[in-house]
Fold each of these.
Amino acid sequence: MKVNYQERIEATVTELKIIIQRQRTITNRQKVQALYLLKSGSSQSITEVAERLGVHRITVQRWLKQYSNGGLSELLKLRHSTGRPRVIPQEVIAGLSTKIGEETCEFKSYKEIVSWVEENYQVSVKYQTLHKQLHYRMKAKLKVPKCLSNKKDELAEREFKKD
């Protein structure tokens, strides 16, 4: 069954031209261009529109379905993918930042921090993941005192500090 897209598309050809010029993203411009090609009659089928725009036929069909369901506003809505969730929950990161920010921070190694996270938050986090979070993202450094030599002369140190 052949569908008459010129009747289904409510906007006029001149309106569609103006909307095409206002679009900032390429995908939105292609979506409106598909409507323009069908409304103006320069393309008769979805396959022809898809070939002209360089997209797949199913993509054009999906765009037309979005347009028929919600109009131009639904068609031009930007959708962001959520991506993979972080391994370390936000509450753990907040707890770590407060714990490391304290002056009486008792952590001497990242392994101690891994065990502390497992004890307090019941979240198993790999050493490497926790190190990346603390060192690179939070820019935190473990404050470990330097080892003191047994042979060090305290009298010589005091004289050195006076000078």
Amino acid sequence: QLAKDLLNPSFDFERRQHKKKRLVQSPNSYFMDVKCPGCYKITTVFSHAQTVVLCVGCSTVLCQPTGGKARLTEGVYLLKDCKTYPGCLGCAFESEVTTNHNI
């Protein structure tokens, strides 16, 4: 008998695995809908954006690139649960300011 169940790994174990070494391969990136705090327009932003994303209505900076994931600006709202996107493993926030992603 094995100490670990290889066919049914725990959620935390799968989340910590490399994207190609999971039981079912899935990307770490995802798309998210964000709402501008100034004009309330909705923009779709890639989680690992490599350029500054501006609002199409008022040219407010919505997110800035870092080494990996893009950092959302203070006051920017996420409209959807990230769980709806296939690559996200367990993010659950619909509130202001998102700097702590659970990916």
Amino acid sequence: MKHFRIVNEDGSVVDQQPFETEDEALAWAHTHPRAGTPGWTLEEQVEADWEKRENSERT
């Protein structure tokens, strides 16, 4: 299980959930009630660090 979180521009954590795949986490992030707020980033926990996966500027 991988752990993901949505982070606002100011660095505050909006929500955090475990998912089997990054695709599931991306779907969750883009449908989350706060996903309409500009400036969020999806991050994945890799060992003790958090790495950016995608931001609200989806291409």
